[in-house]
From TrEMBL:
It is a multi-pass membrane protein. InterPro entries: Beta-barrel_TonB_sf, CarboxyPept-like_regulatory, Plug_dom, Plug_dom_sf, TonB-dep_rcpt-like. It is found in: Cell outer membrane. The keyword Membrane applies. Residues 187-287 form the TonB-dependent receptor plug domain. This is TonB-dependent receptor. It holds the Pfam family Plug. Its main location: membrane. Keywords: Cell outer membrane, Membrane, Receptor, Signal, Transmembrane, Transmembrane beta strand, Transport.
Length: 858
């Protein structure tokens, strides 16, 4: 901020208020002063005009000709009375550290910690921690953050001292409160193509069923779509759902939804926030080629016991948190369950669909340098239809982390985790069960070194062991037509090392660069089929179709023996150039490798979708992504604009032959081909960040395509070997999100979504065979579903907004799809049994859906 240049004039007749106005009209700096300063008084002792002078130089000159003292800290110019000081011997310095927490005992990131007597300060890090070296003595320490009351303490420092601050939210600012303007866009950082949503924002976005949903909220961001209403997974910049790395407190999760996509697995009560990396992905992340969704859970309260929850139409939830040992240990535990199946039974409906999940996080601070934490998740779904079909599926995750601080510059995080996803299916009328799952065990060790304010290094290693069970089929009665069959289990080891450098080259130019080296080993115990000419898929020129190859032998690999191995260098780079404190341009490049894949030829992954590792017939996917953007803040951060252009190229993208059957297929290589994919487009995000009305408009214009050419000149490939639209292509994607605070009791929220229809394959004619109409289909994804759009509204009513202790509550009333749009989930083509005419039928999931939720805490 001190690099900004201004032109000002002062003399003996200029008041301090008039001087403030000159500075504030030319910069985004704010003034802070004590009650002893009279802004209507004239403090300057002589006349001077300073032309195009940097703020830092101006402050130096002004301190020579005024009877007050000016100093710059961050975005603020502090003003205080000059005090005559006598020369004193230098005092011994000690370290003043601590944490800044909000009224929910959550870390406050970017809070300003200012020491009045020294006229210096720092801001808190992502853990809400601050650290500053000060001479031994007595000080007044003030903590401030936009939207919160100032907190001030007298602190005596004679040795290394720890002082924590708890700041309370406040809608009214006093005159002397320092206003810290947090920019909507961080102009100077190299990080781009990342969207962050706080839980305050997430809880304002209306969704079906009336329950705040972190995963559904990211669909309002540019470049993010899904396959439609009540569908699981999400697509980022034209990528498939299995190309997203989803992390919960650092551990991977392999499924993201309950009830076939109606709810996400993330409970809004315990989620602290989420970061979605679409590009410019740091080197510490790897294993997927589309995006990284990094979800963090709250830390339990270290001082007080608290309870909050909500009761909705479909589900209810409850959260409890508090200290295990005051100021040292804490816990937080949340649970959620649906009960729609109970209403079905009351209506003599034998169908059932329900889910439940549990989240927990435990923290213990041994001392200032060592913290141990554990995060866990368990979720399960139960679904059955008239005793003809029943399935259960869900995830389990646990991660244990030890954070150690070696020094003020070097810290580390060592973590070990377990994660699995399981799917069980039973069909009583066919007398069989099918069970499948994926398990993974991992270890991560990361270090952070702050060499200086301008140079930081992040480096580490990690390893991940996989156990894939594609399924075991079990007969459930003696007369079952199915025999016991265990599909071949698969095992793999993925390891990597990375280093990431952040370098501030100049005040305007920042550069981040890094490298990840990844290795992947497909391991036995497994028997691999072999095929003539090594081709598991063969081309039949007579019928112009691809068919399953016939194995001509097999190779058996013993336990732990290497079947296939791959390794890749994955360079990353990002650059930002700030023209000033409000405007910058950024560019980034990513190479990433993905070694595991979901086997599913549907646009939205289903619960029974199977993960499989790369191997002899399935190569790792490799991504190269380029992005550049223009970023701008307006009116001191009240408004912000983010625009980006991107281009993605993916090698070895799995494609499926026509009629491929991937369910319970022990030789999946017989129905897949290796192709490639690309996507490119423009993203725009405009935000209004302050005031009673806030929100954003996001728009994406993009194209997503795949290409699978023939392996020989005689083979046609898929879609004649040409580029064709992938199932994730959405040419236009528009979201408008708004929030209006009418008064402390009432607030209103809205969300409008409009997207191009999903690419599909329609029949373009039919022929008759034996009196039966047989459809003839067009080239793959040559058609589209109709335009998709809906408007959602919500109102929040807080009966007693000023109540800060005891029982507190609020109501959320919502309407999803206000104008009852019948968006098409699919189109089917049939023949009318009465007339014999061809018919097209649209399947819609939702019409208008009302919702109401009662939320409470105490």
């Amino acid at each position: 901020m001190s690099a900004q240049s201004v032109t000002v004039t002062v003399d003996q007749n200029v008041t301090l208020k008039e001087f403030f106005k000159q500075i504030e009209n030319q910069t985004d700096l704010k003034f802070a002063f004590t009650d002893q300063i009279d802004t209507n008084k004239k403090y300057f002792t002589q006349k001077n005009t300073f032309k195009n002078i940097e703020i830092s130089s101006l402050i130096t000159e002004l301190n020579k000709i005024s009877s007050v003292q000016f100093s710059v800290v961050g975005n603020n110019i502090f003003v205080k009375q000059k005090v005559q000081q006598t020369q004193k011997p230098a005092k011994k310095k000690s370290k003043l550290t601590g944490h800044v927490l909000d009224d929910e005992r959550q870390p406050v990131i970017g809070a300003n910690v200012y020491i009045k007597e020294l006229e210096t300060g720092v801001v808190t890090d992502p853990n809400g921690k601050y650290s500053i070296d000060v001479p031994n003595g007595n000080y007044t320490v003030q903590v401030s953050y936009v939207g919160f009351k100032n907190e001030e303490k007298r602190v005596s420092v004679s040795d290394d001292t720890k002082v924590n601050f708890n700041i309370d939210s406040d809608s009214q600012q006093l005159g002397e409160v320092i206003v810290m303007n947090n920019k909507a866009v961080d102009i100077k950082t190299t990080q781009m193509s990342v969207n962050r949503l706080s839980m305050q924002e997430i809880k304002k976005i209306p969704v079906a069923m009336g329950e705040a949903d972190p995963l559904k909220s990211i669909l309002t961001l540019p470049g993010v779509t899904n396959a439609g209403e009540a569908s699981s997974g999400f697509n980022v910049r034209g990528g498939a759902a299995d190309q997203n790395l989803i992390l919960l407190d650092g551990a991977p999760v392999y499924a993201d939804s309950h009830m076939f996509g109606f709810f996400s697995i993330f409970n809004a009560d315990i989620v602290n926030g989420l970061d979605l990396y679409k590009g410019g992905i740091p080197s510490k992340f790897g294993g997927r080629v589309s995006s990284v969704l990094d979800v963090t859970q709250q830390t339990g309260d270290f001082e007080e016991y608290k309870v909050n929850g909500g009761i909705g139409i479909i589900s209810s939830r409850l959260l409890v948190q508090g200290p295990l040992q005051k100021e040292k240990g804490s816990f937080i535990l949340s649970g959620r369950a649906s009960y729609a199946h109970l209403f079905m039974k009351l209506a003599d409906n034998n169908n059932s669909a329900m889910f439940y999940d549990l989240n927990t996080k435990l923290n213990y601070r041994f001392n200032a340098k060592n913290t141990l934490s554990f995060s866990g998740y368990f979720g399960n779904d139960v679904f059955d239809i008239n005793d003809r079909f029943a399935s259960t599926y869900g995830s389990t995750m646990g991660i244990l982390s030890w954070k150690h601080k070696f020094s003020d510059r070097l810290s580390s995080n060592l973590s070990t985790f377990y994660s699995d996803y399981r799917f069980n299916l039973e069909i009583p009328i066919e007398s069989f069960k099918w069970d499948s799952n994926i398990q993974s065990y991992g270890l991560k060790y990361n270090w952070n070194l702050q060499q200086s304010e301008k140079f930081k290094i992040n480096y580490g290693v990690d390893g991940l062991y996989y156990n894939f069970n594609p399924g075991v089929v079990k007969p459930t009665s003696p007369d079952s037509q199915f025999n016991y069959m265990q599909l071949d289990k698969k095992y793999a080891l993925e390891a990597s090392a990375f280093v990431d450098f952040e370098n501030q080259i100049t005040e305007k130019l920042n550069f981040r660069y890094g490298l990840r080296y990844s290795m992947f080993y497909r391991l036995g115990d497994e028997t691999i089929s072999t095929y003539e000419n090594g081709q598991a898929v063969v081309y039949n020129p007579l019928y112009n179709i691809y068919e399953e190859g016939t194995p001509n032998g097999s190779i058996t690999y013993g336990k732990g023996k290497t079947i296939s191995k791959f390794n890749n260098f994955e360079p990353r780079a990002a650059l930002s150039y700030a023209f000033n404190d409000e405007t910058s341009i950024k560019a980034s490049y990513n190479r990433m490798a993905q070694y595991i894949h979901i086997l599913s030829n549907t646009q939205s992954p289903l619960p029974m979708s199977i993960w499989t590792p790369s191997g002899p017939f399935t190569k790792p996917q490799l991504l190269d992504q380029y992005a550049m953007g223009y970023f701008r803040n307006f009116k001191d951060g009240d408004y912000s604009l983010e625009t980006e252009l991107f281009y993605k190229n993916v090698q070895n993208r799995i494609d499926y032959i026509d009629g491929a059957d991937v369910l319970a297929n022990n030789n999946i290589e017989q129905v897949i081909l290796n192709g490639k994919a690309r996507s490119y487009g423009m993203e725009l995000l405009f935000r209004k960040n302050t005031g009673v009305f806030t929100g954003w408009v996001s728009y994406t214009l993009s194209r997503a395509e795949q290409k699978t050419p023939g392996r020989t000149p005689e083979e046609p490939g898929i879609a004649n070997g040409n580029w064709y639209l992938s199932g994730y292509d959405k040419l236009h994607n528009l979201s408008i999100v708004g929030s209006y605070e009418l008064n402390p009791k009432w607030s209103f929220n809205s969300n409008f979504t409009l997207q191009s229809g999903q690419p599909v394959t329609y029949p373009n004619g039919y022929y008759e065979m034996g009196g039966i109409h047989v459809p003839n289909y067009s080239l793959r994804n040559e058609n589209r579903l109709p335009l998709f759009h809906h408007l959602d509204l919500a109102a929040t009513y807080t009966p007693k907004p000023d109540k800060k202790k005891g029982w507190q509550s609020y109501w959320v009333f919502s309407l999803y799809n206000v104008y009852n749009r019948k968006n098409a989930a699919s189109m089917s083509f049939t023949t009318n049994e009465d007339t014999g005419a061809n018919e097209t039928r649209r399947l819609s999931i939702f019409g208008i859906v009302p919702g109401v939720t009662y939320n409470f805490k105490f």
